């Protein structure tokens, strides 16, 4: 009887010791999680703000170097493609070394790209400095930060993904006012140089909010972070094993096909709207509507996904992209294009915000960097191939209607592929 009492006393003492430690660990995880989320927001704001700010200076660069519209468009295509292509390397590296060193390197490259572009002496140098260096820098920071968010949040992962992804929307929204502000003090060279300094300061601040090396596999339960404990309890498939399965290949192809509908409006909507009688200012206003609706979609659909189910909301966003693209193909008046811009923007925001969360839900959090990084290379393929193919089709067919309708069918095939992706777990 005495032995039983002593055993119960030891268990009670152990529980009294472990419970406060568990509460402290949970509180620390909460603080670190939201600090990480702030860092991811800043990294996305700086990286994609730099990529999209090129559009504000494209005409000035074309006038300075005698470049054609094709050469100026190449800079944007290259920066976006390089960003997503390098994710195939930055994601797995983040799983091994942590996101902080990669984010620091990425933001340093963005600042360097802006600074060197300010001193460019030819359009070729602009293409290399702005299109390649800034794109690669953003890619080295983007996926490691987004993957870290997936590992840090289980409850509220959809909303957290939406907040992190909203950084790119805020960066894009700041392009026009910042360009006008900097133009008051000098030409495009001054704007690039000043932006490089700002990107270095803000970007490196965001990078320092990222976690360092991930916990070792051999750590004890009290030494390991709560995120690692949760991943071990779920017993999820590691990233390397997840990407080698048929399910990942199916998801990759599905995201690639849906991304065709994502990239086309940014390259062909303005000309399509002008064909329907809108002037250039009103046509560009449609892109602004897409940006505003996208911001709302990231927050609202991300939050709703945690209630209604992230898989359901992600598939719903992808399907709505297809419906919006169909509406664009059928549009015969400016009001129809406005409806398309709002519907597309909201669903585009939901798709971008929930794609990383969906990937983490399907394949687990332990290898989130590897899974998300390799998955995002499909977007690089779409960025390079879809606008070019659509451009040739528009010229050959004399209009946007048939090429856009075909893009909607391609996106529908992508949604059907995503629907059959199974959730992978290992025993």
Please describe the topology of this protein.
Blueprint (H helix, E strand, L loop, with lengths): L1 H64 L3 H17 L1 H11 L1 H20 L4 H30 L4 H17 L1 H9 L4 H21 L17 H9 L4 H4 L3 H30 L4 H29 L1 H21 L3 H30 L4 H30 L3 H19 L8
Helix pairs in contact: 1-2, 1-4, 1-5, 1-6, 1-8, 2-5, 2-15, 3-4, 3-5, 3-15, 4-5, 4-8, 5-6, 5-15, 6-12, 6-14, 11-12, 11-15, 11-16, 12-13, 12-14, 13-14, 13-16, 15-16
CATH homology superfamily name of the largest domain? MFS general substrate transporter like domains
Tell me roughly what share of residues is in helical segments. over 70%
Low-confidence stretches: 217-237
* CATH level 3 topology of the largest domain: Growth Hormone, Chain: A
Class from helix and strand fractions:
mainly alpha
Task: Please summarize what this structure is.
Keywords: Membrane, Transmembrane, Transmembrane helix. Its main location: membrane. Helices cover about 85% and strands about 0% of the residues.
Question: Could you explain the architecture of this structure?
Answer:
The protein has 427 residues and is mostly helical. It folds into two domains: 30-229, MFS general substrate transporter like domains (Growth Hormone, Chain: A), CATH 1.20.1250.20; 235-419, MFS general substrate transporter like domains (Growth Hormone, Chain: A, Up-down Bundle), CATH 1.20.1250.20. It has helices spanning 2-65, 69-85, 87-97, 99-118, 123-152, 157-173, 175-183, 188-208, 226-234, 239-242, 246-275, 280-308, 310-330, 334-363, 368-397, 401-419. The protein is globular and about 50 Å long. The two termini are 41 Å apart. It is found in: Membrane.
């Amino acid at each position: 009887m005495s032995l039983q009492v002593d055993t119960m006393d030891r268990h009670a003492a152990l529980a009294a010791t472990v419970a406060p430690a568990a509460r402290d660990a949970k509180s620390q995880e909460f603080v670190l999680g939201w600090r990480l989320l702030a860092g991811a927001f800043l990294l996305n704001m700086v990286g994609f703000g730099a990529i999209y700010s090129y559009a504000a200076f494209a005409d000035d660069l074309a006038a300075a170097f005698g470049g054609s519209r094709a050469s100026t468009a190449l800079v944007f295509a290259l920066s976006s493609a390089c960003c997503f292509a390098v994710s195939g390397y930055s994601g797995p590296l983040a799983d091994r070394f942590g996101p902080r060193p990669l984010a620091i390197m990425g933001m340093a490259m963005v600042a360097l790209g802006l600074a060197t572009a300010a001193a460019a002496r030819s359009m070729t140098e602009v293409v290399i400095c702005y299109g390649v260096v800034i794109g690669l820098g953003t890619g080295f920071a983007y996926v490691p930060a987004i993957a870290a968010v997936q590992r840090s949040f289980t409850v509220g992962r959809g909303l957290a993904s939406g907040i992190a992804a909203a950084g790119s929307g805020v960066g894009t929204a700041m392009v026009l006012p910042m360009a006008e502000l900097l133009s008051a003090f000098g030409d495009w060279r001054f704007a690039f140089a000043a932006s490089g300094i700002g990107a270095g300061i803000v970007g490196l601040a965001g990078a320092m909010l990222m976690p360092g090396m991930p916990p070792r596999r051999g750590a004890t339960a009290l030494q390991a972070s709560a995120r690692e404990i949760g991943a071990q309890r779920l017993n999820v498939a590691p990233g390397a094993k997840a990407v080698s399965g048929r399910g990942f290949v199916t998801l990759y192809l599905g995201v690639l096909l849906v991304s065709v509908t994502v990239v086309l409006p940014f390259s062909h909507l303005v000309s399509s709207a002008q064909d329907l009688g809108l002037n250039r200012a009103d046509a560009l206003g449609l892109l602004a509507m897409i940006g505003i609706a996208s911001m709302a979609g990231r927050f609202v659909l991300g939050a709703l996904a945690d209630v209604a189910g992230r898989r359901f909301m992600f598939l719903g966003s992808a399907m709505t992209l297809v419906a919006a693209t169909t509406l664009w193909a059928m549009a015969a008046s400016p009001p129809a294009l406005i409806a398309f811009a709002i519907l597309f923007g909201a669903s585009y925001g939901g798709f971008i915000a929930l794609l990383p969360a969906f990937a983490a839900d399907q394949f687990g959090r332990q290898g989130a960097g590897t899974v998300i990084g390799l998955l995002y290379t499909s977007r690089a393929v779409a960025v390079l191939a879809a606008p070019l193919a659509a451009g040739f089709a528009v010229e050959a067919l004399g209009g946007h209607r048939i090429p856009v309708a075909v893009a909607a069918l391609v996106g529908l095939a992508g949604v059907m592929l995503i629907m059959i992706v199974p959730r992978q777990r290992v025993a």
